[in-house]
Fold this sequence. Notes:
This protein has five helices and three strands. It has helices at 7-13, 15-28, 39-47, 76-90, 115-128, and strands at residues 2-5, 96-99, 136-139.
Amino acid sequence: MITLISRQSVFDKYSKITEEISEIQRLFYDDNPEYFANEQDRTEYQTSFDAKNMFFGKSKKFYSIVSFAHYEIKTFPNTLSHKLITLLSELGIKDLVMIAHFKMNFVGNMEHTYPPLFTAFKKFENITRDINYDEAFEFG
């Protein structure tokens, strides 16, 4: 089941996710006025850093790159989905949260003409009711 949830709900409920996002946002944040054409652009930029001022203790972390060789674009999404499902199952993960590292739309460039991607955009919009959705999802 897919549940739409606010980013703030994720921040309130999942401190380790919030800690990770906050750390990423602090590392990337650069509010130099010279980078922006106008104050509106600067405000939009600042708004995307919604967790940078949330501080937590340092959790123990382990990072690893997980990859696989696959060169056929037509079968890649399906293959990737099956591999992710297998991985999550093997790890005993029953619930999953999907959230972007910045407050931003999940769908970026809507001008793509690749038919499977366009179909995916439509499915996304059916789930979220907003192609510009920028919050979070819980899968479980």
